[in-house]
Amino acid sequence: MKNVLLILTAALLAAGCGKVDDTYYERTPSSSGEDGDYAPINKTYWGQAADSATGALIDNFWNETNNYFYMDFVPPAAHPGGFQYWPQAHAMDVVVDAYVRTQDAAYLAYYDQWFDGVKEGNQTAYGAASANYRNNFIDDMAWIVLTMLRMYETHPEHPAAYLTTAEQIYSDWILTEWTEIPCGGGLKWQHSDGVTSGKNACTNCPAAIIAGRLAGFYKALGDNDKSAKYLADAQRLYHWIRSMLYDSRTKILYGGVDVKNGVETRSTTSLSYEVGTALGAAHELYKLTGEQHFLTDAVEMTNKATTDGMPMDNATGCLRSEGPGNGDGGLFKGIFIRYFVKLINDSNVDKAKRRQFYCFMVHNATTLWTSGTNQDGSYASMFGPDWATPIPQSGAVGLQGHVSGCMLIEAMSALNPVE
Questions:
Q1: Quick check: helix, strand or coil at residue 33?
Q2: What's the pLDDT score for residue 196?
Q3: pLDDT score recorded for residue 25
Q4: What strands, in cross-sheet order, belong to the sheet with 256-260?
Q5: If we measure between CA atoms, which residue out of 118, 135, 138, 253 comes closest to residue 197?
Q6: d(CA 33, CA 178)
């Protein structure tokens, strides 16, 4: 796939709203929701930016022999990192984004290849106990399941294997890790965890989204019994998340509850992907039930995270770096964006709040594309963990940091105007 770099020009950034060459430009309101400074959004330009970023992902990280994504890339062709399971889901999500955006069958061709390659890579890397997508980490399997559900939903033939495999992983290896002790419920982080360890957001929030999505799928398929079962799962998971990890006074979603010597202590950190999946779970439940309190939760925790919450970098006005581009934290921001854009696009959210969120997302994307991206050379269109600063043009580029930036750039084509 040819990697064509497009950088937004100063003229584009200075343009006003309206139609230029039959292309609609959406003005981005100030954070107050009132008229203020505006930046234009042109879907054609952002689509070309996404072609470039996603092209760099496929060109530089896809393993054509084993059908999964390398963990590192050093120009011109070195891949020093080994296989890791959970980032595979998010890298493939970017390919799904590109297919949804373009309907280009070239992207669709990766679906079956990845579906087989990740299973084989998982077993090769982690041994016989990791056969058939099973992994010791519950959250890692949840990410893989969410990607399979997106592949099922977006593939024109809706292959049954994607849905049934996702459902099997969820039912056999994820939901079975719910324990009442400790913490009054919740899913464990690892199969090997004992009953004295804590529970966390990064396992329970994605699982709640899975359950909600399965409820929606089976409702559409006319299987009301299965739909009701999965809806009950989603509600139980979210109730635990809200009661144990969400501070309804401050609107902060915390990362987990630790248990030491029988004492439960809520963590004091809040990471972007934890907030993103919590708001995603609440939003999914709102769409399934129509109950306003779910939407209120989603909006309030999002507002906190994008104004004075811990994921913010006040110096840049963007989501902060949460770890190196070749580490887990490099992926966190992109996961937040995946669920954030869905909330922005929901017309049931208060318009002023949608405009505020819209402005925040556009600022992040514009900062990344104009200030945080190398414009040429061997590192063109690749991203690191700081969206305001380009990655150094030497050494390895981590898959996680690049994928996170790709998710943001792809999401700009999914962002709807706020009328």
A1: coil
A2: 61
A3: 37
A4: 199-200, 256-260, 263-266
A5: 138
A6: 42
pLDDT higher than threshold 80 for residue 14: no
Residue given tokens 């200075």 in the structure block: 14
At the topology level, CATH places domain 49-414 in Glycosyltransferase (1.50.10)
Q: Over the stretch 19-56, which tens digit does the pLDDT of each residue have? A: 223 333 344 444 444 444 445 578 889 999 999 999 99
HEC letters along 345-408: CCCCCCHHHHHHHHHHHHHHHHHHHHHCCCCCCCCCCCCCCCCCCCCCCCCCEEHHHHHHHHHH
Sequence ranges of the domains in the chain? 49-414
Residue 153 has pLDDT above 60, yes or no: yes
Matching residue, tokens 């399934």: 288
CA atoms of 280 and 336, how far apart (whole Å): 9
CA 170 to chain centre: 18
* Nearest-5° Cα angle at 241, 238 to 245: 160
- Is residue 335 within 8 A of residue 407, CB to CB? The reply is yes
| Token code pair at residue 87 | 């980032």
Q: Token pair of 358, please?
A: 């819209």
